[in-house]
Amino acid sequence: xxxxxxxxxxxxxxxxxxxxxxxxxxxxxxxxxxxxxxxxxxxxxxxxxxxxxxxxxxxxxxxxxxxxxxxxxxxxxxxxxxxxxxxxxxxxxxxxxxxxxxxxxxxxxxxxxxxxxxxxxxxxxxxxxxxxxxxxxxxxxxxxxxxxxxxxxxxxxxxxxxxxxxxxxxxxxxxxxxxxxxxxxxxxxxxxxxxxxxxxxxxxxxxxxxxxxxxxxxxxxxxxxxxxxxxxxxxxxxxxxxxxxxxxxxxxxxxxxxxxxxxxxxxxxxxxxxxxxxxxxxxxxxxxxxxxxxxxxxx
Length: 299
Description:
The protein is an alpha+beta fold and 299 residues long. The protein has 12 helices and 9 strands. The strands form 3 sheets. The protein has a 4-stranded antiparallel β-sheet with strand order 4-3-8-9. A 3-stranded antiparallel β-sheet has the order 1-7-5.
């Protein structure tokens, strides 16, 4: 077999401790694959060391790096130019047009990566001062390092220093205006301060940059709900529920039901309450849904 080694870094405040990663099996061109560009031959994923679906995904805590392996059939020929992709959209990992001969001849030790890996581990352990020292050192060499800027913003946010958090995320945005992570993180700072208009602008910008990420629609739906803009919140819940990630998520139907109640769509709300009830295994949540069902007079 052939083994590929990856690492995933969670620097997204919106996901926080609830970030999960997974690799679906038997998805063909929509799944994880290695594409031999010279011979136009594809090697499809056979297994991995992370989950195979959202429900069985592997948890990656905020400000941590998770290393994992993905397995492919044995590749006996020599590869020169490849792409490694997980699906055909930006929702999945995309590493395209890799020139392996070039990489083999230019192997260097990336000390920044080693430093960041160590800093992430100290962040996760709560040793923020040491992490700050490492990221500050990296930023002295490269003031536009997007990972360090977002990491410093996260540390500031966690220690309740929203002013510095906003400043670091803003610097990340100014340096990398076409990268969504700075907008996503800054929107979380704004939302925590009930600056909903600014939060809405940032999350919408993040969606415009990466419209294949359903979690961003969920975040925007919550902001619309905070602002009592129920029709737009419902539209974003519709978008999320239409994806594989949320079509079996009982909470998505629950929140859409709330929107539909406010929009006087009792029939639609009742449908969502029923779906959420059928999906959940949480007895307390079942009780809450039953109470909602009765209040809506869903008979």
